């Protein structure tokens, strides 16, 4: 990436056909929609994109679809995480070859990894590719919690240049700034922390919300950027119920349900994931009506 | 209180003579110092003031000293918490008689209290006095964690009108605003959360830091109030190491050590509390030198 | 104590008159009942005895009532914990003067204590009295969690000779045995862990259950002592629902309700503690009927 | 399985050649060793066998090697867990075809699964095969914690007939017995809980320790079975340091290191997993010398 990444980093879901195959055509359309709305970057194969539930072939198809469709209009961050180092390197090389701007890696765990193992894992990927690596910390999904000290150490690996922090604790971000300097490129991955994180100095906000409320997401980022605190607070509380909802019920379930309510059929989730329960869909409908995303009854 | 309380609510320590008795004369001087620096309210008998370690007589002496010394120049919030309802009512009545602007109550626990017990506890105090009650939530000291729903319920008791939230999780504050409306009078009690909380809409910041850095505390509050985000962020990161230090090592220990480094002998802590360990004092000295609170070597 | 303490250590509640004063006459009768049933020791002023909710005078009256009533028939362990070291020493001396066999101390916290502070606290009490001290670890009430290493260190203080472990984690007990040798005098304070703890080598079981099911408690202890594993397991599962219930709902609330169901009026709890909710009382009734403690409908 | 499974269920590691391929020949030998020592069942492709780090082909090769080598001498439980339902069904069918006695499934998570999703996941596998399913609960690795109520519900699915509980909390086992009756077939998966679990009624102990101390494992099981409490306690504390060590440092790392110390080269771990750190190996050596597994210096 020539310029540092800033702003709203949009995470597309991975849509499926009724037969359960990746729906590449619809994925391309969803990417178009988010780009048209003005998001600042695209990040396929995140948690939202159900990365760990896809086969290697599917992962490559999703990466290719998104990177090609974006076509360099904005940066692309491709998720390449895998339990083994060998598969992570494989996908990272594939993403680089496709022309991705950067790769994003969450150190996944079954057995808890030692710090030495985590460092060696990132080192191996860093030696295999020339594009930047964004480190993604999310104990709730990956099962490993990297403290600020470990993250600071990983940021010393030459092309590990960005951090997505998803613990939802703004104090972690404060510590990162203290340990790495105020120029540290950290991004917020916990939706309800968007305001606090941007105020604390986050360069961007990694979120699946632009599938549904891209303008509100971008306006919040813009308000903080221009120092409009009152505006930022108002925009934040306006979209907060939606952000809380999608986090509480799982991004793939919640975003898929929202897209269906908005009229786009995105297909079944991959089992064991199931669609949002009916009563939850009604709660979501109320939130979307209130946000004027869909018409009221 | 006629006007709603806003700004920096300063928490004095309780100084002791060498013989271990409350040093009322020095307490009055410490209050004068904080008032002279411009704090917006005084809150004796908080956690910083080692409330639970004092006898009933000592508590009354501290309350009287501070309320009289403030003399109405700013609001006073007097801590009146006790394990039993009867003692809490007793101290609340005493504070009211002294002319305190409001009382602050943390529901202390040995046995975890049920919601019904907590409500009845506050109800009993509310019926006994006519001045406002600030509810204080701090599971790390009080041993009970009141969720936003419970807090919202307690705020329906007529003169329970304020909340001090000290969990250090800004999401709790968001929930309070959502449950009670944006006019809910909540205050931040977790020092390292000062910026995030004020941005989220906190009316004030309850802190012992004005013993040491009152101007930085007030300037941070002022910067957020006038919407100066860049200034607020700079002021916040400037004072953050001090805020983290005093939280990490216990407010009475850390503030007492800071005052001693600044030249004021505040006496022994009450056992089992002991003075800050020697190597910690040196860390603190470095922080204070960096903040230009004390001269460097 | 001449002989090492072993077996069922019974914790009496503190009964109150309708006017809310300690009911010393009833307390003496409750002690008689437990002694008649065969318990191996009596421990007034525990958590069950609502120690922290009593005034100094009330504490002394309870200690005196129980120690005198027991009259040396079995050992007495008197709870003397207080937030301050000075008050703890005061109550420990009083207990010794009364003729208590030992004192029990939970390091209570408002401010989390450092290890050095905890050691100094126990040291101060140990220097002040000549009778043994039992260390009580229960983070759920006291707010401090002493790890096995800290406990092992405290057991090096000359007359700190016993440990009551109430975390409910049998692994803590394994560690104690490993650190201090198999002769370490540890006692179980988590009712549902009674079987696992005795099997792991606990010398006794500290429990309020003998107010209600003393024979079952004693028989379980005896079964483990004589190596009757099948019998112990049967006895354990038989009484487990009662043990789980009293822990889940708070010992003072649950034991008081059980005694009332059994026909003994024990008076109001001290506010903010309230009587067990009505629907819980019905659950408890079912358990007691099943245990044949009270007749069925 | 004709007879209900009882006793020591041994978990083999998956050894690798120096080139990083599964070493089927050595795996067969390790199985032989454990069978010769008298273990009661074999469970390939558990956490110890680094199941999630293997490709589908490797998983099938491991299952085939072990099931064939055991040749019906004892029951085999084959791990078939996968993030997706489709892959889990695939591996379950393969195991059944091979002649496995049962399959073992841990509900793995990236996105936390709802109870409905977990039930549907097990339902799908149960409909696909005719052999019994053992449910495996281990939040520390799988990332999902199934409470006793959820487990009881899953045990109502026709051929989900066994539970391996690895939370290390004996209270979970008590609850299972209460919810499902004393005939519930539960197995302990937390090594340091072996004694408490067997005493609580566990039918067996799932462990990788028989690679190193099979006789001690079997003798502990036998002692509890014949009601020899004193013997069981002695045997338990004897092997506890080893059990604690292998849990603290990760079973594949620790067991591989132990086998190497015993003279069997088991090859590299699969990255990102790395061999036990050198200083840890020395700790382990001391433990093995003390257990007379290897000769002292």
TrEMBL record, chains A, B, C, D:
Highest taxon listed in the record's lineage: Bacteria
Alphabetically ordered keywords of this record: Lyase
SMART domains associated with the record: DHDPS
InterPro entries for the chain: Aldolase_TIM, DapA-like
Coiled coil start-end: none
Annotated family: Belongs to the DapA family.
Protein name per Swiss-Prot or TrEMBL: Dihydrodipicolinate synthase family protein
């Amino acid at each position: 990436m020539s310029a540092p990444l800033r702003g709203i980093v949009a995470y597309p879901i991975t849509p499926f056909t009724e037969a359960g195959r990746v729906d590449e055509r619809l994925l391309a359309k969803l990417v178009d929609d988010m780009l048209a709305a003005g998001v600042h970057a695209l990040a396929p194969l995140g948690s939202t994109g159900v990365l760990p539930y896809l086969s290697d072939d599917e992962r490559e198809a999703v990466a290719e679809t998104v990177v090609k469709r974006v076509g360099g209009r904005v940066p692309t961050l491709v998720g390449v995480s895998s339990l083994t180092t060998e598969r992570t390197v494989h996908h990272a090389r594939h993403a680089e070859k496709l022309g991705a701007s950067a790769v994003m890696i969450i150190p996944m765990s079954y057995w808890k990894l030692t710090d030495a193992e985590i460092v060696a894992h990132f080192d191996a990927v860093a030696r295999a590719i020339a594009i930047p690596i964004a480190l993604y910390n999310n104990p709730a999904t990956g099962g490993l919690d990297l403290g600020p000290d470990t993250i600071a150490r990983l940021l010393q690996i030459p092309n590990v240049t960005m951090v997505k922090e998803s613990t939802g604790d703004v104090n972690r971000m404060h510590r990162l700034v203290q340990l790495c300097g105020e120029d540290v490129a950290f991004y917020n991955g916990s939706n309800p922390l968007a305001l606090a994180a941007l105020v604390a100095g986050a360069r961007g906000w990694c979120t699946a919300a632009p599938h549904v409320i891209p303008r509100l997401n971008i306006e919040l980022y813009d308000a903080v950027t221009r120092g409009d605190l009152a505006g930022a607070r108002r925009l934040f509380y306006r979209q907060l119920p939606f952000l809380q909802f999608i986090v509480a019920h799982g991004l793939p379930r919640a975003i898929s349900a929202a897209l269906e309510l908005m009229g786009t059929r995105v297909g079944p989730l991959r089992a064991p994931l199931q669609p949002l329960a009916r009563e939850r869909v009604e709660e979501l409908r109320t939130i979307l009506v209130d946000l004027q995303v869909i018409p009221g009854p």
